Amino acid sequence: MQPATSEWITKAEGDFNTAMREYRARKFPNYDAACFHAQQCAEKYLKALLQEKNVEFSKTHDLVKLLSLLPEGIGLSALRASLAILSTAAVEYRYPGECATRDNAKECLDICKALRAEARHQLGITD
Questions:
Q1: For a designed S-S bond to 83, which of 20, 39, 63, 96 qualifies (C-beta 3.0 to 4.6 A apart)?
Q2: Contacts of 79 (CB under 8 A, 6+ apart)
Q3: What is the pLDDT along the chain (127 residues), one digit of tens a residue?
Q4: The predicted structure's pLDDT at residue 126
Q5: How many Cα neighbours within 13 Å face the side chain of 16?
Q6: How confident is the model at residue 37, as a pLDDT?
Q7: What CATH code is carried by the domain that includes residue 10?
Q8: Domain tally for the chain?
Q9: 45 in a domain, yes or no?
Q10: How confident is the model at residue 77, as a pLDDT?
């Protein structure tokens, strides 16, 4: 595995842990942050896959755009619609006017977990 790929994975795992911690908090949960960090985790795993496949990518937070850059056969195309939801949720809840609920956060985390599991499989991470 390329060193840069490992760095993306480390960053992704940090976001995953933060998303889970905020979702599980008994006192003062921040569901907005859970959604944001779920998106960030997914984004960084997509970038790890692109890095490992030597595919250039620009600075973007659009998960569907990143997914479209992956070579065919990676096994993530079934998540396209879900990733569009996750991309939107990460931005929607960051600003005044909308607040994520526990159900919103669960949906974002479920999408994140699905992408994370497949990305880790594709990258040969077995734990």
A1: 63
A2: 67, 111, 114, 115, 118
A3: 899 999 999 999 999 999 999 999 999 999 999 999 999 999 999 999 999 999 999 888 999 999 999 988 777 888 999 999 999 988 898 889 999 999 999 999 999 999 999 999 999 998 7
A4: 86
A5: 20
A6: 97
A7: 1.20.120.330
A8: 1
A9: yes
A10: 84
Give domain status of residue 71, yes or no.
yes
Joined tokens for residue 48: 């790890």
Residue 127 within any structural domain of the chain:
no
Structure tokens at 102: 């526990």
Tokens, residue 38: 């779920």
Give me the DSSP letters along 81-115: HHHHHHHHHHHHTTSTT----HHHHHHHHHHHHHH
| Residue 89 tokens, joined | 């949720």
Which of 56, 44, 54, 57 shows the shortest CA–CA distance to 115? 44
Report H helices in the chain: 3-24, 31-52, 63-69, 80-92, 102-122
